[in-house]
Structures are given as C-alpha cells and as structure tokens.
Amino acid sequence: MSTQQPLSGGGHPLDDPVGSSLTGPHARFAERRGRILRYPAAVTPWVALPDRPGPADWADAAALAGPGGEITITAFREPPPDDWERTFHAEGVQLVDAGVAAAPDPEAVRLGPADVPEMLDLVARTRPGPFMPRTIELGTYLGIRREGALVAMAGERLHPPGWSEISAVCTDESVRGQGLATRLLLAVSHEIRERGETPFLHAAADNVHAVRLYESLGFRLRRRTAFLAALVPDAEAPRPAREEAADAAARG
Fold this sequence. Notes:
single chain; 252 residues; 8-stranded mixed beta sheet; 26% helix; 28% strand; globular; disordered N terminus; disordered C terminus
C-alpha cells in the first residue's frame, strides 16, 4: 500500500488513516517529500509512511520534520532507524461506529479560533492526545462551558474518505463523572453522520475503561494498531565547522 495515491481496490481507508486523509479530504494540508506525507507541525504531528520504508523514506521524513523535530505514526510496521529517539510507543485499538446513538446536545457550543487558547489549556490539563494550535482546522469541535469556562470538548481529526475520527475527548477534573465527554462524543458523531460519513476513533489498548465505554456506546473493534512518536536525529555540524574544529584541536 502506497501513500502516493488514495486507497482503492483491496485497501481500506482506515488501514492507513493518515495517508488516506492526506490524499483525500485533507489533501489541502499535505506536505510531501518523496513517498512521505505529513500534516504541518502546527496542525498535528501525524506522518504517513509507506508499508516498508527504506533509508530514503526515513531521510525524507527527517527532512520534512527538520533536525530534532518529532513525527507521530500510527499503524506502523517498521521501526525507525536506530539513531531516531523514540519518545512514545503504545499499543492501540481502532473502533468504528456500529450503531452509536448519535444525537445533538443542547448544551454543546461550536468552538472556533478564538477558543483555541482555552482548548490548549484544557488539553494540557487532561492530556487526551496531540492537539496543536491549528488542530481545530481539521473538523468540527464542540465544547461545554460552565460559568463561562470551557470544561469539556471533543472534535474531529483524521478524515479518510467516508470516515471521520473523533479525537480530543476530554473533561476537566472538576466536572468528571457528569457524562459530559459521552454527550460530546455522541454530538460529534451526530455531526459526522449528518454529512453522510461514519465516525471512528482510536484508543490505547490498555485503557480498558475507555474502550469498554466506547463499546457500550455502539463502537466496535475493527483492528489493533500501534502508535509511535520519534525524534529526528540532530544534524551534524556543517563540514567547514567540523574542519575548523579539527584544525583548532591540532593547533592545540
């Protein structure tokens, strides 16, 4: 399966949700180098690799991210080269709508660019996963406010053709246990269904409580996957600088 073309034939868009998004509904975000596709870093750190990346592919990924830059991969099959620092690795699951009781929520408000500082603050406190200053551009985000403060939100991230990923589902500690995250998840699912698309989501495989909740809401396991984040090695100093340093050392 290549990320150069939209999936067709025997391939399923959710087998490579990043590549499917960047060659489909999210093509406007795509940054490409060789066989590598990625979102702008300020949007989301996801990168699409071919099934069997070679040295040239990793070099292209490094060039896109820049020295010390981080890339995030899902459904990866090949580990990065040894000189890449792995910053995160987790086994995960991919779940799809199999009868979710999607419904709008009367308390949910649509979030926009002016809300991003509050959204980033909520994410920093609750850590639902990557959410960057421009992530809101990927789809609809809904929130619930209490006394004017944003206390819960959920929205859309990856967008393979015909599908939309629910992401950034989070609730402030002060209002947990009130079902706000569930209500927003169902409301975002309703938004997706209204467009004629199907909701899906990812979760850590060891987050048993969350997976059971999603299954109780009507999601079913489609496949197991894995998530990896890694840092591009720092570039070596330019050759002239190295040569100057060697000359200086030789001169004592």
